[in-house]
Structure to design on (213 residues):
């Protein structure tokens, strides 16, 4: 397994981090990303079956409250009538509706539910990815693509739970979702964006505002 490369920074330097009855996890020595060994990935069919179980809806006030952890700080930083992309919007787009209610325009993209790849060739004032990056098998490619279509001064808003340490990871419910295959630490984000002229703000334990300077 020593020939496995980190899916975020492509470094070949990594080692075993944790193992349970279903999967093995490794940690990159360079960017700290914790990742599932690819042989344990779900097939696309089984992955979508898991996503189909999600019951998120714009009518769910608890879900709106959860998303507001990103919506509120994003709104404070956006110009009126900004144009954005909700990347990985899922089967029940809600964040986009919340931002539209605030006067912004939001396009929807999701590899399974809104697979309009032409939207990834346009440019945006902001891009949101809520509970998305932990599902990415090629985070380097996807994040670079999103960064490339973000206008100067634009904002990338990310929500994902982050790794604390090995002891917390062992009892962390977040790792038990079989569609979750990569796990960032705060340093993972810092390492990835270090050469991209980016400013990273940690809004709370799982919400980041990343500005393209």
């Amino acid at each position: 397994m020593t020939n496995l490369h980190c899916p975020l920074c492509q470094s070949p330097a990594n080692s075993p981090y944790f193992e349970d009855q279903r999967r093995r996890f490794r940690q990159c020595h360079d960017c700290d990303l914790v990742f599932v060994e690819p042989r344990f990935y779900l097939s696309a069919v089984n992955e979508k079956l898991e996503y189909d179980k999600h019951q998120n809806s714009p009518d769910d006030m608890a879900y709106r409250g959860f998303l507001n952890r990103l919506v509120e700080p994003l709104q404070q930083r956006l110009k009126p009538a900004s144009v954005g992309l909700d990347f990985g919007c899922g089967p029940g787009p809600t964040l986009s509706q919340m931002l539209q209610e605030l006067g912004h325009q939001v396009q929807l993209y999701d590899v399974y539910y809104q697979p309009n790849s032409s939207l990834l060739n346009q440019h945006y004032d902001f891009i949101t990815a809520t509970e998305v990056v932990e599902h990415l098998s090629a985070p380097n490619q996807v994040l670079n693509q999103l960064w490339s279509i973000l206008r100067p001064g634009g904002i990338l808003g990310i929500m994902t739970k982050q790794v604390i340490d090995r002891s917390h990871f062992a009892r962390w419910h977040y790792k038990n979702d079989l569609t979750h295959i990569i796990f960032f630490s705060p340093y993972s984000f810092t390492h990835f964006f270090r050469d991209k002229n980016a400013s990273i703000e940690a809004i709370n334990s799982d919400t980041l505002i990343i500005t393209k300077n």
Q: What stands out?
A: Residues 14-212 form a domain with the Rossmann fold fold (CATH 3.40.50.150). DSSP finds six helices and ten strands in the chain. The helical segments are 44-51, 61-77, 95-101, 139-148, 166-170, 186-192.
